[in-house]
Design goal:
By secondary structure, the chain is of the alpha+beta class. 31% of the residues lie in helices and 29% in strands. It has one domain (2-292). It is built from eight helices and 15 strands. Strands 1-4-5-6-11-10-9-8 form an eight-stranded antiparallel beta sheet, with helices on both faces. A three-stranded antiparallel beta sheet has the order 2-3-12. It has a two-stranded parallel sheet with strand order 7-13. Helix 1 (2-22) packs across helix 2.
């Protein structure tokens, strides 16, 4: 089933790229029907507020699903997506197009105490080793091996705003084109807002330059904020900042489950923030038996 989904996604993205290349009007017509929002946006259920800078526009749940499919993803890729942030000056269907996909993980309150003692170099080494060990299983499932090249941007955590970001550089199979896995996390009372940039490594500096705007734009609403957490009453996540970086929540879903995202420009299938599943999570998860990972 997983192999067939990957094959279908690849076929769809190649078809989409061909259509866009042969008939630019088709892409223009598609984008003209997308309903972009600017200014202030409320996420579903009053969870959080986005105060958008001029450099971004917002797509709601319905149009985000349409764009993900237009990028070549199967329809289920849009499940759980709250919206997308799209750069104002670039069409998401152009070769330079990229966007930030927003979802929410309700796994619980993430205790950030471990952020004070984490060694990100050690974490990277363990992740690289675990990635190599997991490649045999991936190849049996029909996937290319993954190489974690390194940090494209080492983790940064702001203990005051409870906002975290990092980026990984990945290589799929023997491809010379590397993939950027740029992640932003906003910690809240009952879970984490998950923002994943879908772009190529060549766009690292562009995404990096826009990250401060994104971090400043997103805030949980009152009642959902990190400071609103009630110990003993609210659910707590079984991992800290280290587990969050390594994909603590994703690990529960299984090594090959997650959202497939396709960057149209590179025609490459990418795990958006979920490639960390199984990558050294055991060491950095807290309060969970290794057998549960």
């Amino acid at each position: 089933m997983i192999r067939s989904l990957a094959a279908a996604a690849l076929a769809l993205v190649l078809a989409s790229a061909t259509i866009a290349a042969q008939d630019p009007k088709t892409a223009e017509e598609f984008e003209s029907k997308l309903e972009y929002t600017t200014g202030t946006v409320q996420l579903s259920g009053g969870l959080a507020t986005l105060t958008l800078p001029g450099s971004f526009r917002y797509l709601g749940e319905r149009d985000s699903r349409k764009l993900l499919v237009a990028w070549g993803n199967p329809p289920e890729a849009g499940e759980g997506v709250l919206g997308m942030l799209v750069p104002s000056e670039i069409s998401p269907l152009s070769e330079e197009g990229w966007a930030i996909v927003i979802t929410y993980d309700d796994d619980g309150y993430v205790n950030d105490e471990d952020a004070k003692t984490l060694n990100y170099d050690e974490m990277l080494t363990e992740m690289q080793e675990q990635t190599a060990e997991n490649n045999e299983a991936r190849e049996k499932e029909g996937f290319e091996p993954i190489t974690l090249v390194g940090w494209a941007e080492p983790p940064h955590y702001d203990a005051t705003s409870h906002k975290l970001y990092w980026a990984k550089e990945l290589k799929f199979g023997s491809s010379t084109d590397h993939t950027l896995n740029y992640s932003i996390r906003i910690l809240g009372r009952r879970g984490v807002l998950v923002l994943n940039a879908v772009s190529s490594v060549g766009q690292l500096e562009v995404v990096k330059a826009r990250t401060p705007d994104v971090l400043a734009a997103v805030e949980f609403n009152e009642g959902h904020r990190y400071a609103d957490y009630l110990p003993g009453t609210d659910k707590a996540a079984a991992y800290g900042i280290g587990g969050l970086i390594l994909g603590g929540a994703a690990a529960k879903a299984g090594l090959f489950k997650g959202i497939w995202l396709v960057l149209l420009a590179s025609k490459k299938l990418v795990f958006a923030g979920l490639v960390a599943a199984g990558l050294g999570v055991k060491k950095f998860l807290s309060g969970r038996n290794a057998a549960e990972v």
